[in-house]
């Protein structure tokens, strides 16, 4: 507890101006009371708005001299998302894997040409449940004191590894949380991706493979994971992620729509851009996802109710065609359950981030009615 508070104070002092404590002064040796005073005298800065779209969305070299791969240093965070892992390992994100929402939007646009409203939507929905609203920092991996002092429980602020929002069952290259490690590259699962690419893609990963492999992953979890669940909001990321490798991991000078498996492994396992990698040409989001959903027209969000092979639909979950049910439930259930009664700057920070989430939802074309769990 003490050490995390000290780190928070150090971070805060680095980030913001504090009259009582010159930025260069060491905090080592301060009493608990002195540290508390340092923390409470920190001037809270409201989170800045997310950036707009890139001015130039053409393909370009992103594995350039200014962004070399560097291996992890002790304490660096990496997690379930191969794209964010890669961006951190090349310095498009802070290499320690601790980032602000604005840094993440900038990085996914610059490095992969992710469409602006979609990037904002992904970032603010994960940040609100897995990031620290007050310090404005999120871990792209596990829980760490580097995101600062936690707000009161039941808030978790536990990074992208947390099994409660985007992270969830049926990942392509990560095991279900029931089997233990829910975020590291898993060779057994990657070999299934390879097998399906050979069977349906002539050795490449394409939309046809994405659909067949997603169907397999769902059936596989129903049959083997007694605690399997696939409901909103994870439902949406599971289907979108299936097409991300086709949309973003293929070099921007190649328009074939067929992803080479060594290139796939470079991202999924090694967290590295292939040599000379160019980002895609023109920004895009989850185009191609219809190919995946078309293969499973009768699929409903749900869970194994009592052990393996006991899948039942969950009528309270939004379906893939109900983005506003997703938005309202996400805010009123998921976020509200983590932050039942926020006060002070925590409440202000939540309201601002909720506003950014809503604006992204509207920009992405979903005309949902805004909800205000903490007042207007
Ligand atoms: C915009 C911010 C982003 C956030 C916050 C984010 C977050 C996540 C999270 C939490 C997961 C884990 C889901 C799971 O359990 O499988 C994930 C998986 C994934 N992400 Fe991201 N992501 C972002 C952007 C991207 C981008 C730009 C790409 C592609 C270039 C991408 C590609 C993937 C893929 C392919 C997976 C699936 C991994 C697997 O199933 O093995 N993500 N992401
Ligand atoms: C990899 O995934 C498989 C299948 O989902 C699982 O049985 C296995 O335990 C995982 N391996 C590791 C090291 O987590
Ligand atoms: C997922 O992995 C993280 C990091 O190892 C761990 O803290 C968390 O408990 C795991 N989630 C579940 C549900 O097992
Ligand atoms: C995927 O690859 C297979 C084998 O080459 C091909 O038949 C199929 O049309 C491809 N699908 C897409 C969407 O490119
Ligand atoms: C992954 O990294 C290992 C170790 O550096 C290297 O031998 C291998 O060629 C890399 N594979 C890919 C596909 O990048
Ligand atoms: C990118 O797309 C634009 C517009 O479709 C096209 O004019 C340009 O040649 C493409 N660039 C590359 C590198 O493929």
From TrEMBL:
Residues 1-20 form the signal peptide. PROSITE patterns: HEME_HALOPEROXIDASE. Belongs to the chloroperoxidase family. Pfam families: Peroxidase_2. InterPro entries: Chloroperoxidase (IPR000028), Chloroperoxidase-like_sf (IPR036851). SUPFAM superfamilies: Cloroperoxidase (SSF47571). It comes from Gymnopilus dilepis. GO terms for molecular function: metal ion binding; peroxidase activity. Keywords: Heme, Iron, Metal-binding, Oxidoreductase, Peroxidase, Signal. Residues 65-293 form the Heme haloperoxidase family profile domain. It comes from the Eukaryota. Its cofactor is heme b. This is Heme haloperoxidase family profile domain-containing protein.
